[in-house]
Specification:
The complex is a heterodimer of chains A (293) and B (797). With 293 residues, chain A is of the alpha+beta class. Chain A has 3 domains: 47 residues, Uridine Diphospho-n-acetylenolpyruvylglucosamine Reductase, domain 2; 116 residues, 2-Layer Sandwich (Uridine Diphospho-n-acetylenolpyruvylglucosamine Reductase, domain 3), CATH 3.30.465.10; 104 residues, Enolase-like, domain 1 (2-Layer Sandwich). Chain A is built from 11 helices and 14 strands. In chain A, the strands form 4 sheets. Chain A has a 5-stranded antiparallel beta sheet. In chain A, strand 2, helix 2 and strand 3 form a beta-alpha-beta unit. Chain A is globular. Chain A starts with 13 loop residues before the first strand and ends with a helix. Chain B folds into 3 domains: 171 residues, Aldehyde oxidase/xanthine dehydrogenase, a/b hammerhead (Aldehyde Oxidoreductase, domain 3), CATH 3.90.1170; 341 residues, Aldehyde oxidase/xanthine dehydrogenase, molybdopterin binding domain (Aldehyde Oxidoreductase, domain 4); 148 residues, 2-Layer Sandwich (Aldehyde Oxidoreductase, domain 4), CATH 3.30.365. In chain B, helix 9 runs parallel beside helix 10 and helix 10 packs parallel to helix 17. Chain B is globular. Classes of the chains: A alpha+beta (293), B alpha+beta (797). At the A-B interface, strand 11 and helix 11 of A face helix 3, helix 8, helix 18 and helix 19 of B.
Chain lengths: 293, 797
Amino acid sequence: MSFGAPYLTLPSFKYVKPKTLREVLEFLAEHGEDAKIMAGGVAVIDFLKERLTEADYIVDIKGIEELGGIKYEENKGLTMGSTITLYSLRESRIIREKYSALHEALKTLDPILIHRATIGGNICEAFPWMDTVPPLLVFDAELNIISLKGKRKVKLKDFIKGTAEIDLNPDEILESIFVPEPPVNSKSKYVKVLAKSEFGVVNIACLVSNPVDPSKRIVKLAYGAASPTPTLVPQVEEIFRREAPLNKLIEEATSVVLETVSPMTDIHASEEYRRYLIDVLTRKILFELLTAD
Amino acid sequence: MAHRYIGKRLPQLDSFHKVTGIATFTHDLELPGMLYAKLVTSIYPHAKVSKVDASEALKVPGVVTIATGRDFPYRLGIYVGDRDVLAMDKVNWVGHPVAAVVAETLEAAEKAVDLVEVEYEPLEPVFDPLKALEPDAPLIHPKLGEYRRAPAFTPVPGTNIANRFVLKRGNVEKGFEESNVVIEKEFKLPFVSHAYLETQSTIAQYKMDGTVEVWTSAQSPFAVRYLMALSLGIPVGNITVNVPFVGGGFGGKAGLAWEPLTALLSKKAGYRPVKLELSRKEQFTSGAVRDGVYAKVKAGAKKDGRLMALKGRLIFDAGGYGDYTVNVSRAAGYSFGEVYDLPNVYCESLAVYTNKVPTTAMRGFGHPEAVWAVERTVEMVSSELGVDPLEIRLKNVVKPGVSVTVTGEKLRKDAGNPSDCLDAVAKAINWGGPVRKPGEPWRYIGKGISVFCKGPAQPPNAASSAIIKLNEDGTVDLMVGTGNFGQGTVTSLTQIVAEELGIPVEKVKFKFIRGTDSMAYTWQTVGSRGLYTDGNAVLEALEDVKKQIKEVASQVLRVKPEDLEIRDEKVYLKGRPWESIPLSELVMGYTYPNGNSIGGPIIGRGKYISPLNTYLDPETGQGIPTIFYTYGATGCIVEVDALTGKVRVLKAVQAFDLGKAINPLMVECQIDGGFIMGMSVALFEEITFDERGWVQNPNFSAYWVAHARDIPDEMMEISIENPQSDGPYGARGIGEVVMLGVPPAIANAVYHAIGVNINNMPMHPENIWKEIKKQKPELLEELKRKLMEIRELKVER
């Protein structure tokens, strides 16, 4: 967490810039915990400056072809290389049209930093308020992780284990992020309340499909910035599969959300205010998506 | 006479330097053999320093020396000498510098500071200024009675009161009795940061011959030199202070900062130059910020809105030292309600020490704090009485030539007019007219206004001078000690020289390194005084130059000096423009064809000191505190999202009676910049402390300063030009007054939008929400209901 450092210099480290993914993985296999990955450097340079982390080696993965790029396959989904910048994603037509909650989240970010910040970094920093995470949770994102030992897949909701805690071994690297094709006729939105810092105090991503037909209705809600880790609230989906007046379902969903998310107090906002915001904004976002034409 | 340069929209002269990057800041400077300093700072809010062990730190390769408070037994300060160079025996806040490491590289210095072992004996801290006033509160400055202080200040030894000021005029109790309505309210303002882009940065070299040379990011080179000499016992003439380009000051770089420490470190490190540059965190925790305030205000008024009495108690939270803040609190005291014609007024203003970050001057200097409390109070009186907020203000504001101010000064006829400002602003926001219908049922729109004034809070004897040298080719060196930190005074002064000498502005050379060795003295560049005081000195120097030029030319042309005119780089005979001599043939002496020469290099000198100001009566605060008042009014239209508490300013309008806009382009930029800074303080900014006294948000991620996206959709700047006869071309200062009225205007607009009074800053969403919940819980219930009723909602912006 970034609260400012008294230091003007960085601690000493060796800067390494491999040319291929293979080289990266070999380096990590050899040096493990002594090496730290840098893509945009938005977080790691800050942490080094604040002496919150140490590294003998900083491995710069920018520009490695296998880790960049964005690829969309009709009816299958979207694969984003982990080093693609948030700016490129914000400008992506596919994301704007099909994954609008993600697009809206990207639009809330600092217009300068997003030229360096990457999607992989945003996820791996794993702070409560990282803006790409709630949208990726409602889109059921899956991460492709690679090491010399091989590849594995892990759901985003399982990948983030706590504040700044992720399911990634020192020899592994996040290769890409896959989001499946959103459900047909779905709409999604992102709401962020900025209070008095650059971070949201409550961030909400919501996806709704087939609002009028309970048997096919899909509703997903995920929350960031409100509690130590971003939270997908899976019970919401079951609630909205039931046949009942929308008002009633929304009421029920909102209370389940409040129980699941368990808002926190930190320097940016109190638990009480977050609880209130979740209460009213969950209703608001659900209404907007459930009653849109 | 039509002006050629006065009133012209010239871009600031140093825009080129800043845009191209050739401007050099102290931050950029490196001197041969330079060392780097780094601070070891306290982790306790209040503690005795029992031991500093630097042995491990000294082993770090490259470390040259390490100093502690005992090395430098000096006291610093402009108004009260309550600062130490490094903590001598006691620390007063978390961040208080305890020791300093000097090393060959910054890396070595930063490595070594972590190895300096400091042993503390914690003392009971006090964080709340009201608690610090209690009789059994821990004493933060036990030696307060021994400190050097300027004559206008009255610290109370044996307490935590760094200064007490009382303003008293008429009889407030009688005034309350005569009132139909009396209200009393409390107000709070948090500590805020100046947020200048360039953190404090200083290079100093103490030389073996006893002279000291300093390069520093400061507003006032002469104040740095004098206060350093005074504190360290060095003859003033032994010190040279150079100020390169400065990355913002906003009052936070007035007076004296790190220059004495850096110079003493240089001496201890073997007379090599030493650089000390603060990180942003250090700027928040070891540098000085703006005070927090607790205020209680009571006001009484007749049914028709006539204010009968205003009473205030202002408690300034000065933090660990009050050096400059004693005068901030004093200025708030004597300016309390000064825009109004008040028959009865009383204000007690205290500066109180607490174990928090120390405080200093900031743009507005006590006025924003007082104006917040007064303008919110007047708004609440207006709503209590049902008198229109514009009407109540127009009814009560001072009238030039008629009114007597709160300090008992009969206002001059050409003092400027707050009513004109109010009228202009009211018209521009269509006061009383309808507001646009917001897009969603939980959004509310309201209009708000405020009125206020400010003059320079300077000692009565603050002086200015100017030297103008003419060069061989007729170009002109303007040498005046005015600081140049973005406010643009140097550009205005240059315009004045070009105007008066009738030469192109490009021929007036203003040096961007401001230095005590090459510039004429001016007390400080603070308090919106630069254009007025230094401008008058420049005008006098120009008269001197013109007189000298005409004297020589009159001999050459064999006419009387008064028949001559200077224009287009020539001296003319009035009415016979073909009889002229180019300036370049006169400025170093005129040479006749046979070689005989007369005259000689022309150097003009001028000065300014206020003949009118007085000290204020120690019992009543009565007297003449300032050389002018710049009156202003702010109007704005805001939208409140009552669901989240978010406030957004849609339209901002400000009007100022500045006498004369020497440069309307810069005036408009000042007005807009002032609005945005005022809005940022009003809506977002707040330094917060945890229960141990640690600053929680010492960076710009967690401490939000307005960004481009927060700027109002529409901004309007109005200059009103009722000239003041003794100001340069009638001008008054504008640098600070532009942010004074913004917070109350926004809060007043919030009140008119949702009927909730906000008396504590900042008005960030959570605070607005809390106040709605407290004052109008039914509104939140209603909105929640609306949320559940509405089927078709518009997509949010």
